[in-house]
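Worked example 4.2. Below are the chains of a multi-component assembly; read each line carefully before continuing.
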Amino acid sequence: MAFSKREIENLLRLVSRTKDAELNCEECLALVAEFAEQHLAGKSIGSGLQAVEQHLAVCDECREEYEALLVTLGKIDDDSPA
Amino acid sequence: MNRDNDTWVAQLSSAGAEREVALTELRVVLFRNLRKALAGRPHVDNSFLEDAVQDALLRILDRLDQFQGRSRFVTWATSIAIRVALGELRRSRWKDVSLDSVLDDTDYAPTRAVDSSPSPELLVQQEALFHKLHELIETALTEKQRAALLAELRGMPQDEIARHLGSNRNALYKLTHDARKKLKSALQNAGYREDELELTY
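Applying the procedure described above to all two chains together yields the following structure tokens:
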């Protein structure tokens, strides 16, 4: 088990962004819809949602899901079936 | 029909025809949103989307009491459907890959971990930091923490890593979070300030 150059670099990036208290993936999921709506509305992110931003900076899977949600949000103004 | 958040929750929580109508409409909305969210990805066809929406509906109904109304209901439901669908795509891609095969790779060579920066000073800082981090990975982390971090860095889904380790995604997150905290604290004890960690790589 050995870390390559790229993996050490990526790990260092994650370590530098690590906080003592972080949301886990389930906690992030509970808040990410609100975070995405506020982000797209250009609103400043409140303190309660800064933890979402931090989680997205260290969790590739949640970030992938968030980016997919942003792609979708542009088209969900109409809740009714097409 | 357009529903507000309270109406979605009330109708999905009710019994009878009202619930069925709401479920049918939510199914259509989620299908449409997932199709857009996952457009262009391999293995995403109507059959996959229908299965993902069905699984997502079950999860959404199971969590209705957790919806706090701080976003639109459809946005919240879509976030859950995306997690379900991407989770399934990741699982199908990695289901036959063993953790050992992911972790089995060439030896780490510290000299390769140096950026070809033109700045000699930065080059020296990077080399020292990478050496220190490499040393800490070996000395400060448990075998399980090293395996989990490395598997994640190599792209293995968290659910799959957790399955191989006999754990779950939340417990795995705690394991890797504790490992990152341990490395950061050890680097800081070795004299690296937080801003230096950001600037050096």
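Take a moment to check your reading of the output against the notes. Chain B touches chain A through 67 residues (CB under 8 Å). The mean pLDDT of chain B is 90.
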